[in-house]
Amino acid sequence: MPNFSIEMPNKSLAKDIQFNIDHKTKPLGSLGRLEEIALQIALIQQTQSPKLNNPHLVVFAGDHGIAGAGVNAGVSAFPQEVTYQMVLNFLNGGAAINVFAKQNNINLIVVDAGVNYDFAKHENLINAKIAKQTANYLTSKAITEEQLEHCLTQGAQIVADIHAKGCNVIGFGEMGIANTSSASLLMSICCKSLIENCVGRGTGLSDEQLNQKIETLRKAILHHNLDNETVTLEEMLMAFGGFEIAMMCGAMLKAAELKMVVLVDGFIATSAFLVTNHKEPLVKEYAIFTHQSDEQGHKKMLDFLKVKPILNLNMRLGEGTGCAVAYPIINAAANFLTEMASFGSANVSEK
Question: Are 191 and 300 in contact (CB under 8 A)?
C-alpha cells in the first residue's frame, strides 16, 4: 500500500496570525467563523497572507456490486445505470455541480473510478477504472487488496497532478448508486455506532425500503465481522468498498501531504474522511467541512470528528455541491486576512 507523510502545520505562527486578525479594522471577533477559517488556512500555508489558487473539485464515480443486476437489495431508489448517466450529465455540463463550479470559477474534473460503462474520451474525464463495479459485500469483500492499492495510488496521483498545476485548494465529490450504503457501513465501524443510527434515505427511500436497507446492511456487518478496536483503513475499504470512496481516501491523504486546503463535502465524502482520519488523524488539520448534509448520519459524523460545518442548507445531493457552494465563504476568509487594512495601516483609532 502507498505510504503518506503528513506533517502537523507549524503552530508557532498562530499567535502572530491571530494578532493580525484581531487588529484588522473591525471590532474584535466580528467576522466570526471567517476568522477561524482564515487562521486555519494561514497555518496550512504558513503565511500571514494566504491565497487560494486554481481551485479544483474532483468528482469520483463508481458502481457498487450491491446495486448490480440481480443483487439489488433495496439499498437505492434508483437503478445502477443512473451512475453512468449522471457522469455523462457532468461531462455535458448539466448537473448542479457544474452550475456551482462554473459560478465560482472552480475547475471540475470527473474520475471514472469504476463505473459500469465505457466512456468515450473527454477532456474533463480521467479514466482510472479499477473494474466495472465492486463485488457484492453481502457475499465477499467488495474490493481486493490489489484493487485497493490501485485506488489509493490513483487517487494520490490525480491530486499530485492537479497540485503541479498550481492548485492549493481542492474539494472532492462523488457519484455512485448505493454509495450511501457503503458510507453508512464505514461510519458504523469508524464511529462504533449501530447501523440503524447511520443509515439514511439516500436517494429517497420509503419507510419500507429504509427498513430493508437497514436489514441488508446488518447482514453485511455480520458477514465481515470487523473488530472495531483494531480495524484498519485497508480492512474497512476492502470489506465495504466503493472504488470512488477508496480513491477519495488516497486523494485526501495526498492533498494533506502536499499541504493543500482540503474541502470535505457531505455524507459520502465525510465517510471517506472518517476512514482517512482513522489512518492518519493529522489530515484533519488540513480539512474544512463545508456543510452539514440532511442525511441523518452526517451530523453524527461531524460530532464524532468534533468539527463545525460552514453551512447547513438541508442539502443532500453529493457531487461535491457543498464544497462549491461554500467556496466563496472560504475564499473570503483568506482574502480578508490578506487584503484588509489593519488599524495601524489605515490610521484608524482602536477601541
Answer: yes
